[in-house]
Amino acid sequence: MLFRSDLKIERLVTDSVEQILQPSRGFEELLVFPGVEHVPSLFGLCGHVLLLSVVVGLWRRPVFAAPAAIAIVTLGTIFACIYPSSLRHEGLLLVFFMGLYWMEAESRNDR
Fold first, then answer.
1. Distance, CA of 93 to CA of 69 (rounded, Å)
2. pLDDT tier at 101 (50, 70, 90 boundaries)?
3. What is the pLDDT of residue 1?
4. Cβ-based neighbours of 50, under 8 Å, separated by 6 or more
């Protein structure tokens, strides 16, 4: 069974806190670097930097940065404790980021 039915609130809170501290956790399919898979500490650092740079890039407009940060934490927590992810699931995060950047660019043009 892929879906976890034995989920407890303590595990959900713990995994959410871990996701905040380690943003790339749960996005292993999306953040694959050729030739670097065998170095987990480097993979984790690069993944954290990439995901955090998405949020920092939107920081001028908190209305776009907050949903990006919330999406990283929420999807990562879902992938860690409820439903395992695959590339198509993690790709939704990428599409969401592209939409946020698009809306942010359009809002700059409207000013």
1. 11
2. very high
3. 44
4. 24, 31
Whole-angstrom distance, CA of residue 98 vs CA of residue 104: 10
Q: Spell out a b/e string for 55-75, using b for 16 or more CB atoms within 10 Å of the CB, else e.
A: beebeeeeebbebbbebbbeb
Instruction: Please indicate, yes or no, if residue 3 is contained in any of the structural domains.
Output: no
Average pLDDT over residues 28-47: 64
25-29, 97-101, 104-108, range with greatest mean pLDDT: 97-101
What tokens were used for 84?
């395992």
Asked, for residue 77, whether it belongs to a domain, the answer is yes
Please report whether residue 4 resides in a domain: no
Candidates 91, 87, 96, 93; CA nearest to 19 is 93
Residues spanned by the domain of 42: 9-110
Farthest CA pair distance, the chain: 51
| DSSP annotation string for 20-37 | HHSTTTT-TTTT--TTTT
